[in-house]
Amino acid sequence: MIKFDETTLDNGLKVIVHQDKSTPIVAMNIIYKVGSRDESPEKTGFAHLFEHLMFGGSVNIPKYDTPLQNAGGENNAFTNNDFTDYYLTLPKSNLETAFWLESDRMLSLAFSEKSLEVQRQVVIEEFKQNYLNQPYGDAYLLLKPLVFKKHPYRWNTIGKEISHIENATMEEVKDFYSRYYNPGNAILSIAGNVDTDDIYKLSEKWFGGIKSGKTHKNIYDKEPPQLGDRELIVERKVPQSAVYFAWLMDERKSPGFYTTDLISDILSSGNSSRLYNSLIKERKMFSELNAFVSGDIDNGLFIISGKLINGFSANEAEAAIDEQLEELKTSLVTDEELEKVKNKIEANLVFSRLSVLNKSMNLAYYELLEDALLLNKERENYAAVSKSDIRKKAKELFATGKKNKLVYIAKN
Amino acid sequence: MQKNIFPNRQIAPQDNNFDELLFQNPQHEKLENNLDLYLIEAGEENVVRIDLVVNAGSIYQSKKLCASFTNTLLKEGTKKLSSDRVAHMLDFHGAYLNTSVSKDMAVISLFSLTKHLERLLPLFKEITTEAVFPPHEFEVHRDRSRQEFLINSEKARYIANREFNKLIFGKGTAYGQYLETNDYDLIQHDDLINFHRTYYSPRNSYLIVSGKPDKNSKKLVADLFGSSWPQPDYISLTPNNITSVSFKGEMMIEKDDSSQSAIRMGKRAVGKLHPDYPKLLLANTVLGGYFGSRLMTNLREDKGMTYGIHSYMSHFKHASYFSIAAEVKIEQTSAAIAEIKKEIGVLQNDKISDDELELVKNYIYGNFLKNFDGPFALAEMFRSVRDIGKDFGFFNKNLSEIMTLTADDLLTTAQKHLDMNDMCSLVVGNKLYDKTRKSE
Question: Is the pLDDT of residue A261 over 90?
């Protein structure tokens, strides 16, 4: 259980406070409810590029980082399909500086041309470093458009292509800011040895005067049901062949999400899992093999990805994985196996509460989903899943005609 | 709620305050068999971490991969428990077992909920002391590691790190060891058994328990790793030939399909116990040790040449080095190197402003604090000082010294310790694409 208090300012900003007396640092986390799913198909990568620009100075503060570092603080940010998250930690004694900095960039940015020009270059280098200059780096650039035909999850957060980033203009930057960077579209969460009333007062003082603005609410095209398996085979100069299988899965908030997540754990969480035991250890077919869920808010992905030991073909790999999925569709898992994956979830929830930064992030994330209270219900949500739920979900998830396959053939 | 008074946004709302750092040292106990046991009771969650730290790093191995394979494969079966049984016990209790090997030390760590600890402790003990390294599990691990090595060998970053380490510590030395594909063919199952028997002994190890262990578990740890661990004593002997002379000058490794150049630059440096250590730590932070550093500001925030550039101090038991690392635009490789050299020159020749000096000191303070967030972080911080024979007092001493350093201290430190003539510089990339390269 994480205890917390919450309030909403008149301008719509949600404020969440968690007290942890055991640490001298405070964590502040702000989620803006905008991600790459909010981009237009011709201008992908924009939400992430914009995140970089949030560090290029705000209306009253020329450089975001300098005062924060002066206060002994550190910060970073990330963007994903659904939201953009800014977080910082600093000594508790300097907390008000964080309010000043974060509220100023919610109030207005400096919109510097130089910052836009430089960050375009920086993001292009990020693109190359993470997606191009390493083997299999482009896997998700290939996989996502294979699965998604309608929904904006079909492009990656970094962008569909470098030219989209190159072509971003200052006008678009300003427009994006006024559309999404408003108090009513944000969640502020603070964890540390703090007092709720003090935080409420500071929030009102620094954020209270910011106009609520008009946030654009997007409606996303629902991905239509898949009719028939799809595949993409590429040849690359990689050391070993690799396979990626993806299925469209339930939305984050639906009960089916929890069942599907447990299926991924049964398959590949820990060395006692099914895929590890049968395909890595016994048959020595893969050097790496993982099953996991993407965790997106809308219908996301269930993925199984593996790198093949030389000598095995992609077809053999697929048949072996299919066999494992068939097993889940036809036989019930054992009580012990289900208890094991649930125990692991329980432990992971406790481990996730060990740092104030993690706690502030989790509270903000669950508030984004619907309500921070959900964080404390996660254990029950997983506990409610039964053996027959798992079999039923496996039948539905892995039904014929729902598979997407990406294969890397190693080219010498 | 008090009505909003629009605040003055032009200046920071408060002076920065920094309380003195005080960290309570762990409780220390010497067990019957001389094993040092450190207890760090901290945090609010009912979790425990146990680290067994052994002098069994890669410098002690006579065959490459031996130290890391031994450490990783501890969990793959014991005299009494099969590999499957160990995996099931850990997973069923939601516990994690992490293993890691550096040049000097091998560490095996258990993360568990307090309520399951008593049940898992005997298993943890058995893994570390009674491992049998079954041949099948050995082969599976060897083949997987070989594949992982082959994938890494395609990454410019990995090639650069591997080559740079060799250049800094010298070829054929214990610290300069360098993996090649055929090392995966040479390593044998028996090598692991011998390495484990020799090095994983009580007098060669110490134990840290952190988090919130209950009374029974605390007693059980002392029993299992104390009186019930009467192995023949052995203390790892430091091998000869740990390092030799570093390479000085420039080196290029061609990688045709690169879309970026990986740059590594650096030299050997003084260790944590040297009187100049706090000064060098400050100099490193100014140059490339944080997001607002000069290298980051110049190469990323001003010129957009890279996604990130950092400088580091890396410390090992018998040697330390300073390094700069970045992946940069391939077309501007030479220009990037010139900028790096320029920044080192500025550090040696121009006095730092009071504002920047104060900012960096404040940053270092906050960063120290952050490193102590949570009970398990305390265990890691303790390990880093225990390995050099110190305790948490070491951090306080260094931090107070850093706070007193002046602009002149920084100049002399940069001149003394970051001499360009002593640097080794390495580029992995493709020089044909470098538009800023002068023709030879």
Answer: yes
